[in-house]
Design a protein that fits this description.
Number of helices: 13
Number of strands: 22
Shape: globular
Largest sheet: 5 strands, parallel
Distance between the termini: 36 Å
Radius of gyration: 27 Å
Strand content: 15-25%
Length: 508
């Protein structure tokens, strides 16, 4: 969001506005009331996490007969078994899943690939098979003491919590890791009665990949962050009693995009604990599937088409990429569904297109630029968050607050342009612009397709060949249009949309 630029304040809280849209949707219909004609094709989806559910939804909406095979006893994948209820209420998840099943999707639980069924049999019985099995193997620390009683993996810990059969972590808990799972484990441990919970990270707090709001909420609840700490050994003989650390010195950014952490010898220290939770990542379990495999036993997949080597086999989601966000998994599930339908039917049912339409001048008020970001309301006092343990912490923006937050949007889908054949170079638009978004230009740089790639500005009027609105700086206030004496400024609404292919363009 452009509101995050240095002089513009904090970004628009898009996530919270989307939640408000859902909270206040009332009885609005969710989709078409008429079922699509049958595609005459059967598709198996292995895994009912975000990627599998998204793929099943899109496949069903074009008439494919979809069956989801889920290894666990309930659908949802990491949405149900990896994200705590205080962050994602199960009623919300259940509503989404019921909607997808209501499209005619069949769900079979306790059906594990490699045990109850095989990929070969699925391929024989279906026209296509999508593997979206997620990541259910925890990454180890590979240090002494990791197998002691009282040491949990982050995934194991969260799955037990989400199943309703949590372990007893004791009063002092050390969580090793620095991602969302580590924070979920730490906040869950507090709800299980722990009193001293620390997240131990090799990075500084500023380097953590989780959202700033997440860090603040965890600290507000009592979680402490132990920065620049490298694990050397889990202490204890009969059970975990703590972790031996050494302080870290951060270096340059490595090939993985993370800063390298090297130990500072002589800085060793011990933190005592009743239990240790190792949450440093997950990876896919190797599954028995036909076709070529990589050195880790996973199917070789073309990342663009999501096709595996075996005919009719596709792979998507975290099983392909490793741990990602929910929204990234959903996006890949939708991409896989589109590819499967195109391969089976010989045509695309949907395509992305840029829609452009002329629109009227905006009535965006300049004062809206100075509205503060609306804060997500949360349960207070903090002590009330822990009883019951699954109580949702964030309570949602009210209608008025959501409307205020939406006013902050700079309407970046609106494109302002000056018609130079009509412009009289009066400078009125430059004089009223609240930002330096209208430029005197000597040259407009374009690529081979004619798209603008840059501007060569000038302050010398004798060199001016155009007056150009820099839409990367424009805040869509409409002041330039109101003062233009020759009405040479236009505004176009530009959006990326999905549509049915036109004029037979969907045929492959």
């Amino acid at each position: 969001c452009r509101h995050g630029e240095a002089e513009l304040g904090l970004p628009v809280n898009i996530c919270h506005i989307k939640r408000a849209a859902s909270d206040f949707k009332g009885g609005l219909p969710r989709g078409p009331s008429v079922s699509p004609p049958s595609l005459g094709k059967k598709v198996a989806v292995v895994g009912s996490g975000p990627a599998g559910l998204a793929a099943a939804h899109d496949l069903a909406t074009v008439g494919a007969a979809v069956t989801i095979f889920e290894a666990l006893d309930r659908p949802g994948g990491m949405l149900r078994y990896g994200i705590p209820e205080f962050r994602l209420p199960r009623s919300v998840l259940d509503e989404e899943i019921e909607y997808i099943l209501g499209l005619g999707v069949t769900l079979k639980t306790n059906a594990r690939l490699g045990a109850e069924l095989s990929a070969e049999s699925l391929l024989e019985e279906h026209d296509a098979v999508l593997i979206a099995a997620g990541c259910y193997r925890s990454a180890p620390l590979n240090i002494l003491g990791e197998r002691l009683p009282g040491v949990f993996t982050g995934l194991e810990f969260m799955m037990d919590v989400c199943r309703g059969s949590p372990p007893s972590p004791g009063k002092r808990v050390l969580v090793v890791g620095d991602g969302f799972t580590a924070f979920d484990c730490a906040r869950s441990a507090l709800r299980l009665g722990a009193e001293d919970v620390r997240i131990c990270s090799r990075f500084t707090e500023e380097d953590l990949a989780v959202a700033r709001d997440e860090i603040e909420e965890a600290k507000l609840e009592g979680v402490r962050i132990e920065s620049l700490a490298l694990s050397r050994k889990i202490a204890g003989k009969e059970k975990a009693e703590g972790i031996e650390f050494v302080r870290a010195r951060l270096g340059d950014v490595g090939p993985d995009g993370m800063r390298e952490a090297s130990p500072i010898e002589g800085s060793e220290f011990l933190l005592a604990a009743d239990s240790v939770i190792v949450a440093i990542g997950q990876r896919p379990e190797p599954l028995q599937v036909p076709g070529e495999k990589d050195d880790r036993g996973r199917p070789v997949v073309d990342r663009e088409s999501l096709r595996a080597a075996a005919a009719g086999l596709y792979v998507a989601g975290d099983f392909l990429t490793g741990p990602s966000t929910v929204i990234e998994a959903v996006a890949m599930g939708r991409k896989a569904a589109g590819r499967i339908v195109e391969d089976l039917a010989g045509r695309r049912f949907f395509e992305q297109a840029v829609r452009m339409e002329e629109t009227e001048i905006t009535d965006r008020d300049r004062t809206w630029d100075f509205l503060p970001r609306q804060v997500m309301p949360a349960v207070k006092p903090v002590s009330e968050r822990f009883e019951p343990a699954g109580r949702e912490v964030e309570t949602g923006l009210g209608a008025e607050a959501a409307a205020e937050e939406s006013k902050r949007c700079y309407l970046c889908y609106l494109h302002y342009e000056i018609d130079m054949d009509r412009c009289i170079y009066c400078r009125y638009c430059i004089d009223v612009a609240p930002r330096d978004c209208i430029k005197l230009v000597r040259e407009v740089l374009t690529d081979g397709d004619g798209a603008v790639t840059g501007l060569v500005e000038t302050k010398n009027w004798s060199e001016v060949n155009a007056v150009v609105i820099d839409n990367a700086r424009c805040i869509r206030c409409g002041a330039c249009m109101r003062v233009c004496p020759v009405e040479c400024i236009s505004v176009t609404r530009v959006e990326l949309v999905e549509r049915e292919p036109v004029d037979g363009e969907g045929h492959g």
